[in-house]
Amino acid sequence: MDKTNQILDFNKRERVGLIVILVLSLALFALRTSPVLTASFQVSQQNFIKDIQFEHKGIAFQELDSVKLLPFDPNKVSEEDLRSFGLDNYAIKSWTGFLKKGYRFRKREDVKKIYGLKEEDYLHLFPYLKIEKIAKEKPKAQAYKTKKKYRKQKDNTIRIDINSANEEEFMKLKGIGKKRARTIIKFRNILGGFYSIDQIEEVYGIDSSLFASIKAQLVIDQTKFKRLNIFELPADSLQTHKFINFRAANAIKRYIKNNPGIEQVEADVIRNLDGVDSNYINKALPYMVLRKY
């Protein structure tokens, strides 16, 4: 009993401390359980947060406004310039990336389209935007015209053998450049040579008007194109020609086999064979030797 009294026996200072703790505990409990007091506390807390945000925003505006701006061309700013304006990194990268890709601002309002640029930053910079007029790029076109003006005139009296001319010789013709010259030679090699000047009009890239303008300068040596003897060559060799397909080659060889004593095959006979396309075979007939030697 004496020990218990000693434990519960407090001096005046200790009793005052206990009373204060008890009062604070009761007040805290009342604050948590009372709806009116809780709502009042939350409103006060929200107002406090808003005040902090407003002050922070005010500081941000104050920092941006503290930058002394002068009129500038948005097409000529550097990353350091943009950083000095107080822009964030995302807006700076978007702006500089836009310029590095070769794009340009045509009017001041275009700056607003930069990704990551805040509305307040745009409004702050807008009065200082001054876009210089972008000159139209005409020097290259002018240089081309000048070059074309002094280009060496082609000789209209020259004559070109279409079965032996090389790339440089074809390029002497008006309207025939390097690409067309190569196309003519490629087509000639596929056919095995030309048998007629009119075949030049069949070359890809040469229309009727161009052909008409150069036809008078073209000549042909008809001994320089390859001919195919239908009696001597097998079907596999015949069908290597551009205008003789598998069915036509086999139809020709089958006709010769079924007529062992024949010395010559008429063109009309070949046209009427089964499996022969008359449109193609007419182009192939000049390349065929139809008589047995």
Describe this structure in words.
The chain starts with a helix and ends with a strand. With 293 residues, the protein is mainly alpha-helical. Helices cover 51% and strands 3% of the residues. The radius of gyration is 47 Å and the shape is elongated. The protein has 4 domains: 11-64; 67-128; 160-224, Orthogonal Bundle (DNA polymerase, domain 1); 228-289.
Itemize the secondary structure elements and their pairings:
Blueprint: H1 2-8, H2 12-33, H3 35-65, H4 79-84, H5 89-100, H6 119-125, H7 139-149, E1 160-161, H8 167-170, H9 178-191, H10 208-214, E2 218-219, E3 228-229, H11 235-238, H12 246-258, H13 267-271, H14 278-284, E4 288-289
Parallel strand pairs: 1-2, 3-4
- CATH class of the largest domain reads Mainly Alpha
Q: What's the average pLDDT?
A: 80
Largest sheet: 2 strands, parallel
Q: Can you say what the CATH homologous superfamily of the largest domain is?
A: Photosystem II 12 kDa extrinsic protein
Tell me the fraction of residues in β-strands, as a range.
under 5%
SSE series: HHHHHHHEHHHEEHHHHE
In one word, what is the shape?
Answer: elongated
* CATH fold-level name of the largest domain: DNA polymerase, domain 1
Number of helices: 14
Radius of gyration: 47 Å
| Overall SS class | mainly alpha
Structurally, the number of domains stands at: 4
Strand order of the largest sheet: 1-2
* Low-pLDDT residue spans: 52-65, 143-150
How many beta-strand runs?
4
Share of helix, binned: 40-55%
Distance between the termini: 149 Å
CATH architecture of the largest domain: Orthogonal Bundle
